[in-house]
Amino acid sequence: MIVTSGMLVEQYSSYANPNNKIARMVASGELTPIRRGLYETDGKTPGYRLASSVYGPSYLSFEYALSRHGLIPEAVVVYTSATCGKRRSKRYETPFGAFVYHDVPTNTFPLWIDLVREGEYRYWMASPEKAICDQLYRMPPVANIDELEQLLFQNLRIDEQSFFSLRPQAFTQVANACRCRNIEKLAAYVRRVLR
Hints:
Layout: E1 2-4, H1 5-11, H2 18-28, E2 32-35, E3 38-40, H3 51-54, E4 59-60, H4 62-68, E5 79-83, E6 90-94, E7 97-103, E8 113-118, E9 121-126, H5 128-137, H6 145-155, H7 160-163, H8 168-177, H9 181-193
Parallel strand pairs: 5-7
Antiparallel strand pairs: 1-3, 2-3, 4-5, 6-7, 8-9
Helix pairs in contact: 4-5, 8-9
């Protein structure tokens, strides 16, 4: 379970020095530090469960979500997430893995993301469609539909069969919410091929 230093100080307020108690718990392995002021009580927790808590607001997206949804063949070991309004990327190296955060447009941030529940953990993840849009948002603009197809199926190696089973309305909604040529071309492409 994720706990903050504030929660721990309150929990151990009867101790003469709660911070010394926290330091002893870290030294004994009862707590694993994630970043300053944030700890995990189970050192074997998979990092993806922590991504939304490490830096927020955020949701898992980009390469990590594409891999988790089975859209790309590669296993991704960095937990890539989307944020908004931060204006710069962030990276955290932790005992649970590397966490990377990139901005997406504020208008698209809440669209097509899902709250995932696993036991006592809750985290946000992009839908397959949103993960593709987020990835395309971060890439240089393509000139035409042919270049878009090459980018999707050769460069990113997105599985075509899986891609054509996705929800076209998601691409259209994200394209309408932001001004990104790659996503606008993606929405037009999907409308054309999935008629």
